[in-house]
Specification:
This protein has about 50 residues and is an alpha+beta fold. The protein is flat and about 40 Å long. Helix content is about 20%, strand content about 35%.
Length: about 50
């Protein structure tokens, strides 16, 4: 399926997630072309869980 906006296909997105839990610090770096569905799925993981 082709994207309706051809300029979107030229974008490379870098998404960096930083997490700190107790004595651990984590960096996750995603770089590349990403569609809206992927970004929505990965951003859902950033919602903190209730303690």
């Amino acid at each position: 399926m082709e994207d309706a906006d051809p300029e979107k296909n030229d974008l490379i997105i870098e998404l960096v997630m930083l997490m700190q839990e107790k004595d651990r610090f984590t960096v996750i770096n995603f770089t590349g072309t990403m569609d809206e569905e992927f970004i929505d799925k990965i951003s859902y993981t950033l919602i903190p869980l209730s303690e």
